[in-house]
Design brief:
The protein contains 13 helices and no strands. The protein is mainly α. Pfam families: BPD_transp_1 (PF00528).
């Protein structure tokens, strides 16, 4: 009886929070699903139900396909850089700088993650500038021809990956540091007695034991990568502030369809595609981790 009363009390106590969560999080998702099945134009009173017509149109829309390809390349590019580099830097900070300076290193590498996106993107835009940027000046010192970083379709995507990786790295390092600090020291001591120290202990002990941390960081990084918007928007904008078209990403395409072309239903179908992609990738990562854990 007492246990039942505790369950009732817990449910009643959580109801306000659950109601707010449902309204703020779940209701918009359900409404987006509804909008994606309609030809929903802001300027038109008639908003007919068209079923999956918006999704069929997406498959033949070159702008959408380009946006999806660029977004996917950016998300996985940032993931490929952030995970291994974040783990290695965290290992170096944890194992080799257990001094008063370790806090300085942790703070320094975490600062890019909390810097406002627009000022950071403006600074990197200057670095990548074809005429006045220090990056081309550095390349010229080594005899390499200057590159039009922000005007080439391929190089501009690389620039966005570099900027996003620079911002995401600090968070990955911080989370991996938490993981390193919770690993059992006895295992490393035993491995050192067996001759497995340094890179060997990192490869055979640290990486396997940090799989849950890696899963979390990879999910957060991929979700953030597929929602990228401010970085390419600022990097590819012209001198008057108008958004450029070299780095077309999915969120930018959604916003333009919604507020410039007034095709809210079509933009909602893009949002549904983005939601499905993120859910599928997250499920795949959890499945892989579970299978490795059983093995």
């Amino acid at each position: 009886m007492l246990k039942r009363k505790r369950w009732i009390f817990a449910i009643l106590a959580l109801l306000p929070t659950l109601a707010i969560f449902a309204y703020v999080r779940m209701y918009p998702i359900i409404d987006i699903l509804r909008l994606s099945l309609h030809r929903w134009n802001i300027l038109s009173k008639n908003k007919p139900f068209i079923g999956l017509e918006n999704f069929r149109e997406l498959m033949s829309d070159n702008l959408f396909l380009t946006s999806l390809m660029n977004t996917t390349i950016i998300a996985f590019g940032v993931l490929a850089i952030t995970i291994p580099l974040g783990m290695v830097i965290a290992a170096l900070i944890f194992h080799r700088t257990r001094t008063r300076m370790s806090g300085f290193y942790e703070t320094s590498i975490f600062i890019p993650h909390i810097v406002s996106l627009v000022p950071a993107a403006m600074a990197w835009k200057w670095i990548f500038d074809a005429r006045l940027g220090p990056l081309n000046a550095l390349l010229s010192a080594f005899g390499i021809e200057p590159q039009a970083w922000l005007f080439d379709p391929v190089l501009s995507v690389v620039c966005v990956i570099v900027l996003c990786s620079w911002q995401a790295l600090g968070y990955a390092v911080l989370i991996y540091l938490v993981g390193f600090k919770n690993l059992p020291v006895s295992l490393y001591e035993a491995a050192k007695l067996d001759g497995a120290s340094g890179p060997k202990s990192f490869w055979y002990l640290s990486i396997p034991m940090l799989k849950p941390i890696t899963l979390y960081v990879s999910v957060v990084t991929l979700v953030s990568g597929f929602n990228v918007y401010a970085q390419p928007f600022v990097l590819a904008s012209d001198s008057q502030g108008a958004p450029g078209r070299q780095v077309r990403v999915l969120v930018l395409d959604m916003l333009e369809n919604s507020f410039r072309n007034y095709r809210v239903g079509y933009a909602a179908s893009e949002a549904v595609v983005l939601l499905v992609i993120v859910l599928v990738l997250t499920l795949i990562q959890f499945t892989m981790l579970r299978e490795k854990g059983k093995a």
